[in-house]
From TrEMBL:
Organism, scientific name: Roseivivax halodurans JCM 10272
Alphabetically ordered keywords of this record: Metal-binding
Cross-referenced InterPro entries: Fumarylacetoacetase-like_C (IPR011234), Fumarylacetoacetase_C_sf (IPR036663)
Keyword Metal-binding: yes
Record-annotated Fumarylacetoacetase-like C-terminal domain positions: 28-227
Name recorded for this polypeptide: Fumarylacetoacetase
GO molecular function, one term: metal ion binding
Length: 228
């Protein structure tokens, strides 16, 4: 017997360094334009305006190391990000207590159908069609806080076929990790299994089938993803 009319979907589980157990994903929050240089390249003022977030779906996170080039687009962009995985949550979390809720960190990518996102922006519509498509968030294994601490500085870079495309430093984030957690918790009740993608530095650009992307975040490691 089952309490559901159809079989429920499986919980998305991400690999964790040092254990065979998986990290279960509940929600995925993504902050937009969180590095000043990237805000400028996207045509926006880099001043510290209030943060904004959009969401991807849990099953958009993909640890396979392969990114299938998606349909209905001719302009897919890479965006390297540090992912923040939460072990606990709540509402109205203070900045001072925010890091107590972090389980670990990972290297990730926010792949974007830029042409479709641009069309939605012009019409004032949501971005999901450009952001929340299948396997749009390649991600590496999660490194628990016990092994990497809470990285607040460190080189962030992405190479495509060996050529450096994006570079920056975690200390260049406009809104730091504790501030992101605190701000989100004012509008959503955060919970164990939530993942936050923390923004990308300047240099976003297109990829093509056959490309190899190597993403690096200082203190966490590398993520290699092939565009299939």
């Amino acid at each position: 017997m089952t309490d559901f009319t159809i079989d429920p979907p499986q919980t998305v589980g991400l690999p964790v360094v040092g254990t065979e157990a998986k990290f279960p994903v509940r929600r995925v929050y993504c902050i937009g334009r969180n590095y000043a240089a990237h805000a400028v390249e996207m045509g926006h003022d880099p001043d510290r305006e209030p943060p904004f977030f959009f969401q991807k779906n849990p099953d958009n996170l993909d640890p396979s190391g392969e990114f299938p080039y998606p349909s209905e687009t001719s302009d897919v962009h890479h965006e390297i990000e540090m992912a923040v995985a939460l072990k606990s949550g709540g509402s109205n979390i203070s900045v001072d207590e925010a890091l107590d809720h972090v389980y670990g960190y990972a290297v990730s990518l926010d792949m974007t159908r830029r042409d479709l996102q641009g069309e939605q922006k012009k019409m004032g519509r949501p971005w999901e069609i450009g952001k929340a498509f299948e396997r749009s968030a390649p991600i590496g294994p999660i490194h628990p806080v016990e092994s990497v601490g809470h990285p607040s500085e460190g080189r962030v870079e992405l190479k495509v076929n060996g050529e450096l495309k994006q570079e920056g430093d975690l200390n260049q984030m406009i809104w730091k990790v504790p501030e992101m957690i605190s701000y989100l918790s004012r509008y959503f009740e955060l919970a164990p299994g939530d993942v936050i993608l923390s923004g990308t530095p300047a240099g976003v650009g297109p990829v093509q089938k056959g490309d190899e992307m190597v993403a690096h975040v200082g203190g966490i490691g590398d993520l290699t993803v092939r565009v299939a």
